[in-house]
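Re: that chain you flagged

S.,

Sorry for the slow reply, it's been a week of failed gels. I finally had a moment to sit down with the sequence you sent. For the record, here it is as I used it:
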Amino acid sequence: MFNICCLNVKKFSISDIENLIGIKAHTIRAWENRYDLVPPKRTPTNIRYYDEEDLKVLLNIVALNENGYKISKIASMSREHISTLVKQFKTDWKNDSVQILNLSNAAIEYNEDSFSETLGGCIKEMGLIKAMDIVLFPFMKKIGMLWQTGTIDPSHEHFASNLIRDRIIVEIDKVKKPKRKDPKRFLLFLPEKEMHETGLLFARYLLKKCGHETLYLGAEIPYADLKKVVDSYKPDYAFIVLTSLNLGRDPNKVISKVMDTLNVPLLVAGSLISEFDVLVKDQLKPLKNVCDMVEFLEDL
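Prediction finished late last night. Pasting the structure tokens below so you have them in one place:
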């Protein structure tokens, strides 16, 4: 995101807007040319830009368009009418496109109340598993991409992920772990250079619901410490989640190092696993999505 100093107002280029709302730049320009829809502003040196109010309007337009309203119809509406219609969708918690846009808008504004309302509404309506599958993981993937491309600041990603993290912990505490005759022991951790705990906490939630035992170590655990933990805890499985591009674009190197260190069956999930090919190995189970995670853990 380019920065132009003017009363600390945040300004977005059209490429920033493209990333934020998920609509191609040429389509945004077409909306402007045909319907005078959200025309950009210009700096004293004639550089085109959009401000935060423009972004809100564009997010609302996308929400209406994805719910059946034609752009030509939207263009005839006032901004107030557009906002009123979108508010009617706001509590349609199963509408994943609207809720991802709501979360994105709240994160950009650092609006904790709005973010928590959307987060809580989705989980209450759908349950944590479905909410993670169709809203929260896609949202986190989007927000991570926006951070990597510089469209938003790292603080926006941290704001969102910490609120989601806190809510998953609340949901974990609510679970009454069922008794089972043969619970398995799971060692949950993130390897060095991996700090995104959302997926790992979700795995802990699933394991508790299934009645299994967990030892949760959290993020960026040094390899030197893991062997001692395994010798002491004696897990049946280790579970890691790989999402950070800091690990490189070949997750197989990290997986191999973890397996060589632990020498126990390894479950591995995360966006890097869904996006890149994982080499087939004995004692390795890649889990590419939420359905894979749920099915495997329920079948143990």
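What I noticed first: The two ends are 47 Å apart (CA to CA).

Talk soon,
D.
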